[in-house]
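Private note to self, pasted from the team thread so I don't lose it. Backbone tokens:
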């Protein structure tokens, strides 16, 4: 085999997108094929080095950190096959969601549901449980129909509901603990139009009507601005009408100037002078106006996110979400905390993936953020205390302090996953400190 991957034998620093996680792997490799990926794993095992794969670093946890071999999937990209009869697309693991979405749209196809950004690789997004919001359609991982994974002994496993079904069930959200994903087959459908309706709404109204909004809309989410009683809601529903994207100027004002440029300035000011944050929140929450537009899915589901932040998110039983959010609001109001970022609330239907945050239960997500560089521990700790009181499940790629003892109690199929891990990676080639904490030794 001709070797085309690049290797550094000296330590090279790695940092995630938010800058809160760093690592110094012994070497970094860029395999260009599944065969090269297999050889990388075999060499690492012979050399006694742990292995982790890192995509674009959009996780806020150290799930990809290693002092051993860091696999970068930059050369494992592109679409392998589109099967229109089966309604699937098979894509290399390192393909960015942005590139996949554009390529599918060019073929008249689309994923059914997406998260709110598309910078991640397909393997990174699915392995950590990236999700959007949906009444009936679930996370990106729930749209997987098959995958390839290279295990610790260099075996290439092809997995689906029919082939290696136990591995398939777990590896859709595998945390990088079972092996290195080399390719994923997603379900796709003919491209469709979504009409987005964005509308400011009072906190008391949106929480009182939450169940109604979820029931009446295919995709519903809202953002609450701390230190105010103001929210912004977004309802996305399929449309049989005409394409009507945001105007070029209006779209730029809303998505770039207000949501990125002006927000960056406001966050920087708030970090320097926290006392001004409540006033900024009142102004910014009133600056948003109602708008309606219709476009293809990825242009509606996703938005540019140029302001860097740190984030914690918990999945709760859906019926507990409104009560927990009210507790968060009351906690902030009685505390000296100054919170510059909106709190985001989304939903997901139950799914059958063992480590999915929506595994076996209809879920609602409460996500809290703070501007990068702002001390976050007091805020996140107080919110986490509320979330865990409601049997919350932390997002695997976002900041949390939970360990295997807690997680085994909120995931009914937790032991199923760890038993599979013991079988596929008994020597913990893919282990690191984060996995040791959340999955156990």
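Design output:
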């Amino acid at each position: 085999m001709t070797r085309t991957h690049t290797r550094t034998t000296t330590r090279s620093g790695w940092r995630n997108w938010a800058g809160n996680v760093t690592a110094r792997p012994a070497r970094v490799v860029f395999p260009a094929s599944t065969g090269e990926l297999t050889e990388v794993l075999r060499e690492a095992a012979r050399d006694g080095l742990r292995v982790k794969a890192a995509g674009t670093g959009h996780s806020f946890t150290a799930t990809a950190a290693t002092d051993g071999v860091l696999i970068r999937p930059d050369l494992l990209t592109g679409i392998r096959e589109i099967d229109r009869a089966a309604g699937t697309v098979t894509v290399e693991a390192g393909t960015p969601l942005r590139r996949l979405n554009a390529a599918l749209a060019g073929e008249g196809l689309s994923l059914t549901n997406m998260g709110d950004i598309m910078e991640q690789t397909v393997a990174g997004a699915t392995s950590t449980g990236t999700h959007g919001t949906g009444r009936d359609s679930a996370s990106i991982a729930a749209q997987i129909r098959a995958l390839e994974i290279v295990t610790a002994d260099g075996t290439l496993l092809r997995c689906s509901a029919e082939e290696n079904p136990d591995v398939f069930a777990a590896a859709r959200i595998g945390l990088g603990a079972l092996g290195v994903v080399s390719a994923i087959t997603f379900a796709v459908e003919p491209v469709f139009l979504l009409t987005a309706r964005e509308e400011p709404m009072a906190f008391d109204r949106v929480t009182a009507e939450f169940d109604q909004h979820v029931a009446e809309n295919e995709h519903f989410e809202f953002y609450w601005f701390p230190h105010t009683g103001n929210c912004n809601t977004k309802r996305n529903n399929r449309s049989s009408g005409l394409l009507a994207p945001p105007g070029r100027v209006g779209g730029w004002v809303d998505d770039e100037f207000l949501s990125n440029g002006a927000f960056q300035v406001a966050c920087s000011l708030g970090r320097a002078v926290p006392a001004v944050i409540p006033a900024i929140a009142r102004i910014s929450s009133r600056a948003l106006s109602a708008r309606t537009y219709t476009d293809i899915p990825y242009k509606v589901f996703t938005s540019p996110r140029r302001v860097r932040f740190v984030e914690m998110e918990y999945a709760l039983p859906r019926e507990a979400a409104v009560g927990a959010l009210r507790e968060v609001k009351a906690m902030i109001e009685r505390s000296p905390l100054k919170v510059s970022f909106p709190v985001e609330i989304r939903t997901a239907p139950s799914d059958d993936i063992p480590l999915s945050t929506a595994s076996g239960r209809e879920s609602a997500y409460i996500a809290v953020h703070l501007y990068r560089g702002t001390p976050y521990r007091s805020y996140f700790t107080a919110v986490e205390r509320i979330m865990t009181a409601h049997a919350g499940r932390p997002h695997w790629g976002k900041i949390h302090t939970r360990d295997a003892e807690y997680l085994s109690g909120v995931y009914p199929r937790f032991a199923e996953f760890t038993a599979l891990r013991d079988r596929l990676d008994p020597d913990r080639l893919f282990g690191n400190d984060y996995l040791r904490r959340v999955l156990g030794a």
